[in-house]
Design goal:
about 35% strand; DNA-binding (chains A, B); transcription (chains A, B); 8 helices; alpha+beta; DNA-binding; about 25% helix; 11 strands; Bact_HTH_transcr_reg (chains A, B); Chorismate lyase; 6-stranded antiparallel sheet; homodimer; Arc Repressor Mutant, subunit A; 2 domains
DNA sequence: TAGTGGTCTAGACCACAGT
DNA sequence: CTGTGGTCTAGACCACTAT
């Protein structure tokens, strides 16, 4: 028949809409198997590519997930609540506890992999840290996993000269982490700025976070300032958007 | 030839990668026209559907935008900086200025459409506002546009009983907006909470924000509390993620 | 009108999962 | 094994844009 055939809206959209409605009414719950390509071809008398396209709509909206050789399944959404302000209270990281242990109340969020390096920073970060051109930064790359599933990548940038000789350049930064160590050398962070963006992930992020198609990432750039107003750390984070709700409390 | 043919990675991914590299090196700048389906078919000796798939990768990542009958073009990214804390300083909205006028420094962000209604709220919002079951809320739906392009939808929910008879139920809330009017009736908001999520847009959001494929939305739910700790307003916002950077400053 | 992207067909081979 | 989704082909008609 070529093009649209019967209705005025594309077949694949009609099929996608029908599937979405079935999910919304609870006919298919989180984790349930949806009709696959062959089912849709038979049920709607369309070609494989058309059935695929319908499924593609749900995938792009993050509603469904295709597992090769197994089928198409309804996605689940159970985010962690990340409190932007309280979690950085000095009382918490000042003595012992990691900044991250509060992230997932009762859940099992843990450090998955760490690497430390010294590199030449991108211009934007270099100028934030107030470093001279060509000055190296200490880079701490980390990945966090929730119940075994990776949910966040974090990369901290610090003046390499400033932190040389401290535990910040070690894999294990010790009790209280980076901020406690910075305090010990007279650069205790007291003020923070978090900048938030969102976009679709780059292939490398898709890979490192095992993201299914249709899941955006949230980017947080946190800059930590000392009492004097100097930026001592820039932490670039990449979050699986389906894993997080960010919360900020403030009294302007 | 069937399946993968030459290399070990799919043809469409190789083609997509090549296009992305060309964008990254600046060969194609923002707004430039990219090779279209026909160009890619000729250049790589592939079928139309394969060329389409390659372009689909760039669209899904938000890098390119297809305009029917015209071609495929490199997307632009020029976000507004939205300061979460300072923008709510009472000094700003206390006398006259709108909370929103600060959003876009020098840009032309303006209210695009407003509607006011009284409805029965969803359970989550009803309980946030501490209302009895079945109690109605005053709903203010607004859309904001930046240089004519819609970038945000906002829906405020307030206790209908509380705001009855005030300008909050009018299209024009008067100088200082909702928060100034709440102050006048003894419910001045002093504390705010913003919760942030991100996901792919629903079709209705895609439509109202004119979003190209591959653009996530950012959801902000702001709850405004009085000195007594009562929630007086819940504002649900839907932002075009490519139009915004959110900024939060705090001293924990 | 010529060219573009949007949609669609009816086949095909492959890698992978569980059935 | 069978069935699944992933990839690919070589055609086709349509609506839309720009000339």
């Amino acid at each position: 028949m070529g093009s649209q055939g019967g209705g005025r809206q594309p077949k694949y959209q009609r099929i996608a809409l029908e599937l979405k409605a079935a999910i919304e009414t609870g006919e298919y719950g989180p984790g349930d198997r949806l009709p696959g390509e062959n089912d849709l071809m038979a049920a709607h008398a369309v070609a494989r590519m058309t059935a695929r396209q319908a499924i593609g709509v749900l995938r792009a909206e993050g509603l469904a997930e295709a597992r090769k050789g197994a089928g198409v399944f309804v996605r689940e959404y159970r985010p962690i609540r990340r409190r932007g302000v309280q979690r950085l209270s000095a009382g918490l990281w000042g003595e012992g506890r990691s900044v991250w242990s509060m992230d997932a109340e009762g859940w099992d969020l843990k450090l998955d992999s760490v690497s430390v390096a010294e590199e030449s920073p991108p211009e934007a970060i270099r100028s934030l840290l107030g470093l001279a051109e060509g000055a190296p930064v200490c880079l701490r790359r980390r990945r966090y996993a929730l119940n075994g599933r990776p949910v966040m990548l974090a990369t901290s940038h610090l003046d390499a000269g400033l932190v040389a000789g401290t535990a910040i350049t070690e894999i294990d930064t010790g009790p209280g982490g980076i901020y406690a160590r910075l305090g010990e050398i007279g650069h205790r962070p007291v003020r923070f700025r978090e900048e938030i963006r969102s976009r679709m992930p780059a292939p490398l992020e898709t890979d490192r976070l095992s993201l299914p198609a249709g899941t955006p990432v949230v980017l947080i750039r946190r800059t930590a300032f000392t009492e004097e107003g100097t930026a001592v750390e820039v932490n670039d984070m990449v979050l699986d958007s389906s894993a997080y709700i960010l919360e900020y409390d403030f009294t302007p």
